[in-house]
Amino acid sequence: MKAVVHVMLKPGVLDPQGEAVRHALGALGFGGVEGVRQGKVIELDLADGDTAEAEAQVRRMCEKLLANTVIESYRIEIA
Amino acid sequence: MRAAVIVFPGSNCDRDLAVAFRAAGVEPVMVWHKDTALPDGIDIVGLPGGFSFGDYLRCGAIAARSPICRAVVAHAERGGMVLGICNGFQVLLEAELLPGALMRNAGLKFLCKPTVLRVGTTDSPFTGGFERGAEVTFPIAHHDGNYFADPDTLARLEGEDRIAFRYAENPNGSAGDIAGIVSENRRVLGLMPHPERAIDPLQGGTDGAVLFAAVAGALQVA
Fold first, then answer.
1. What is the C-alpha separation between A6 and B69, in angstroms, rounded?
2. Residue A9 C-alpha, separation from nearest chain B C-alpha, in angstroms
3. Domains of chain A
4. Do B108 and A17 touch (CB under 8 A)?
5. pLDDT tens for residues B147-186?
6. What are the structural domains of chain B?
7. Is pTM, for the whole model, over 0.90?
8. How far A57 CA sits from the closest chain B CA (Å)?
9. Can you tell me the ipTM of this complex?
10. pLDDT for the residue A16
11. d(Cα B145, Cα B151) in Å, to the nearest integer?
12. B77 is catalytic
């Protein structure tokens, strides 16, 4: 079983790296890019088992380590 | 008087911090991150600057979950003193001993230069030797020193007089120009600038020695 965790800065938290990417895109001639947010994708290979239980466990991993919930939000996909 | 200086893989200011403690009369003991307990008779824990665990995941995130950090949190919860400098400040935030987070510098550049700070609270065993509002110069050396906290937390820090140092000229985008804060019981200080790099005239200044002398003084009284 695979779990994919998407970690993003929360709305309202300034993302200077995303802003730098947006400027660079503009410099390359890509118009109309109004915002860029940069995040992380973390893939976990999990032993096969109950999907709901796995999701609950990954949620605990996010709360304890994978995301800093002061500034980041996360989304979990189980595949 | 004894200080434990915690050493993580990638710490690089651990020996400077030990020198600063020793110069103030506090005997340093180096403690490896895999240890599960602090040595006996430790009065203060120092979390040094550096790039613990290569800044993987987030600065200080892995270090804050290392075995020794459980002992450091227990020490702080017993009312013990903790000083976290630069990466050590990041570890303190990740360990939730202090509120907020440190993000990438607003200008995206690694900053390494002497920085003028204004002393905020003098009501702490770290800052009692300064005058409120005094200007001191400590070097900064960081890529992720942009302090962030939600408006309620910032208001609480302000209201409880817990801002220890502010940048005279904000170099990194930190909310409220915050360079360092203390815990609710005022026994934990985290700051991005490096007082241990300002303890000897050869380093270009000695403002940092005042902080270490205050720590030694507070421990002597206790």
1. 27
2. 10
3. 2-78 (3.30.1280.10)
4. yes
5. 999 999 999 999 999 999 999 999 999 999 999 999 999 9
6. 2-221 (3.40.50.880)
7. yes
8. 17
9. 0.88
10. 87
11. 18
12. no
